[in-house]
Fold:
Amino acid sequence: MGVTVPAPLFRAPAADVTLARVRQIVDQNLPESLTLEYKEAYSPSLVTTVAAMANSYGGIILVGVTDQQQPNRLPGVADTAIVQIVNACHDRLEPPWEPEIIPVQLAPGGSAYVLVVRIDPARAPRPLLIDGAAPIRLQGRNARADRGRLAQLFSEPSAPTRAGGRLVTSPEMPTGPDGSPTADFILRSGIVLPVGEAATWRPLSERGVSLLAAALNASPLNAALQGWCGSLGITGLNPFRRSGFNRARHARLAW
Structure:
């Protein structure tokens, strides 16, 4: 199952990216993922992550936040780290490109900041290359795009010609050693984004809808919906289930 970028930080206007919102993400103890990475301090690998997220689903890098479970996960960095990031992106990325960097002060009048680095793939030229290779983002790590993914990146429209807003890109289904898919579907939750042509899927089959219904009923989402409806006095609810077909004879999902 795919996970979208943490919405409170990714969607908010820059002026609304506050320390409280940063702490909200950190306090959830979210692990590093396709769209989230922690950096206790600037390092050259940060630029690789910028390129990898830009070439994949986008994401957020929190600089000045440690990924270690300890009492203080926000040691912060000096604001000079902004210059390091910008210079490194300009020098190492091909073509030169810099992400949005939002400094969040840890204490009034202090010199320590958390830098919220936001990588929007709809605004980045794709592919972004480093040393002639195109990094891509996997679950919590970076990898090098294979020939197929590289060709796909080169065939996409450049950033200025894409539709406005943040774009949901085509997902990469996990595959087994023989190349066959090992998952029936990928869910993205947390934010509502426009879907580009490359990310448009055909509707799920009847089997796919049944598998999706079973996965949702076993997830925290079903319990949350049941509890929310119960607090409103709504009873007699049905779980997620297949519900007939649409005009194209594709199975539908209902709750």
User: Anything to note?
Assistant: The CA atoms of residues 220 and 226 lie 10 Å apart. Confidence is low (pLDDT under 50) at residues 161-167.
